[in-house]
Write a structure and sequence with these properties.
With about 375 residues, this protein is α/β, with parallel strands linked by helices. Helices cover about 20% and strands about 25% of the residues. It has helices spanning about 20-25, 75-85, 105-115, 125-130, 135-140, 195-205, 235-240, and strands at about 60-65, 90, 120, 150-155, 155-160, 170-175, 180, 185, 210-215, 245-250, 255-260, 280, 285-290, 295-300, 320, 330-340, 340-350, 355-360. A hairpin with a 7-residue loop joins strand 17 (about 340-350) and strand 18 (about 355-360). The radius of gyration is 23 Å and the shape is globular. About 45% of the residues are buried.
Amino acid sequence: MARSSRAPNRIGLAAGLLTAALMLSACTPETPQPPPSSSAGQPTSAAPPEPSPPPIEGSSVHFTAQGDTGVGNGARKVLDVIAQLKPQLNLGLGDYTYMAGIEQQFCDLVTDKLGAGFPYEVVTGNHESDGHEGDIANIVKCLPNRLPGLQGEYGTQWYVDVPQQDPVVRIVMVSPGIDFRGGNPLDYSRGSERWRWTAEALDGAKSRNIPWTVVGMHAPCFSLGNYGCQPGEEFTNMLIEKKVDLVLAGHDHVYQRTHQLGLSGGCPGLVPASFSSQCLADTDDTMVQGAGTVFVGVGIGGIGHYNVHDDDPEVGYFASWSGKNRNATLGTLDVTAGRDSLTARLVPAEGYSHTDAFEIRRK
């Protein structure tokens, strides 16, 4: 569970021309200031502008997603996989550096592997939200938004339609259950401003007839790893009630993917740390849109692994899982959203083998 100004050039003029110059400046566009001078009095070279990514177009959108990355060898392996897959964008699900002051190192690693200007789109994790082991503001500066039409506060709570024209998917990134500076979590409780913002973003996708909705956040609700439902039971059930197709998270350093979970007369709401078969909308790997929501934890971006717990009460909700004690895997989720179907597969990094795949088809 993330922030330009220009001053006009000053041109030395004779005092008698000052008025004319001011009139002229009001009618012409501003231009950048000349490069600043170094301490030796010589102009410093301005950094070349980063290339803009090509616009995302077409009837399908190809993206990858993972969290809990770090800057070590595991992260490099996962970034190599992403580069080989050639997605149009990547969703970073939080926890990037695990150490304060190395945000630029992380950003340089991403751009070295994926290219300057690649849309590596971020939402904060708990390790950079409070500034103790990194600062999401610094990540946002060196990996800025590259997608046109983004709404909200990039890095913390935002959504974007992809492609911008005739979109196939609305991506909504939020930060429930994440502590910010001072130990204060953002308020995603029922009826709060952030609850309403999220619900309206999801309703807006439906009203525009955008085929797919994908929600990303750092902390999961359902998990076989170390954590409980940090986003909150009511917020999570709201996502299911709004018929979000896919919910992505990290935080737990495991891979975990649920069956399609849905609400019904027999399942008015899912209760964390428990199981009800009435909440299983579909349990095979080919599902129909609208019956429920698939939750995927992809906290395997490079930093390491936690154990998965086969005796967790929620285990009946899960279709696939991998952790330190069960075929540990680093890698990325690879997703393609088209007009008629959304397909996803786990692609492991070099040296790892666990895989998973599923599909959601439109009615």
